Amino acid sequence: MKVYFGFDDTDNDDSLYGTGKLVRWFKNKVPDECECLGVLRQQLFVCDAIPYTSHNSAACMILNIPDPSLLDKIIEDAIAHIKHNSALGSDPGLCVVTEFNPSLDGIVEYGRFCTHFVSTQKQALNAARNAHLSGHGGTNDGIIGATAAVGLTLSGWSGRFVEFGNLRDWPEQTTVAELKNSGIEALSIDRDAKIPASDDIINTNGWLRPRLIGNRPVLFVKPQGQSVWENIDRKRTKKDFFVDAG
Question: Structural domain of residue 55, as residue ranges?
């Protein structure tokens, strides 16, 4: 069965790593018989009324757990992982939802709500009333983003993969077919919506982070020449952060 693990608010202004990296590390602690189907960064509402470290993002890991009896132990391990790796002064939260949860529609709706409005812990608890939801320090406000991260991932149309296969091992250039064989679809965003051919080259910019589109990892590309495409994304630099802030 698919199980969604939402994490949020595990870092502070002085942290050397964010929640996304903390969640990616957790992949190494799940039982061997379980499969990590990806880790997604989900963007939540940014406004002065919400305390956040940098961009108010949360993360969700999707696990395929063949034996449901393993779930309780994995949740215990996730809690221990949060407690061990969260920064001092953070407000961590964990939300765990199976694909059979009767409240999936409400959790999805809540996730979308959190991209445009300020939410409360009470609203998160109500949305995830049939799921595991727990806070592990500080104000426990992380349960809000953790629930929202699960909801947005469940929607199938939100988020950027920060873990999927070997995202960090891709070369500067690859082909459409090689991406597809790894489970990633290339989708053109040019005006005419031309379909990239299997042998076409894709320049990755050294940074492959597909989006979740229709419950599938999709890489947006734009034309760069005859039978050549370019990944529309690239890794942010300190200069990019300064421009965004300005």
Answer: 2-162
pLDDT band at 45 (very low <50, low <70, confident <90, very high): confident
**Residues contacting residue 102 through CB under 8 Å, at least 6 positions apart:** 130
The domain that holds 18 is classified in CATH as: 3.30.70.2200
Q: What helix, strand, coil percent values describe the chain, rounded to 5?
A: 30, 25, 40
Q: What is the domain count for the chain?
A: 2
Q: With 80 as the cut, is the pLDDT of residue 76 above it?
A: yes
Cα–Cα distance for residue pair 7/18, rounded to 1 Å? 11
Both 101 and 137 in a single domain?
yes
d(CA 65, CA 239): 41
Last residue of a domain, one of 162, 177, 195: 162
213: left (phi over 0), alpha (psi -120 to 50) or beta: beta
99 neighbors 215 (Cβ within 8 angstroms): no
Closest by Cα among 150, 146, 158 to 215: 158
* CB 175 within 8 Å of CB 202: yes
Percent share of the chain, pLDDT over 90: 78
Q: What is the pLDDT of residue 87?
A: 83
What is this structure's pTM? Answer: 0.91
Over the stretch 87-117, which tens digit does the pLDDT of each residue have? 888 889 999 999 999 999 999 999 999 999 9
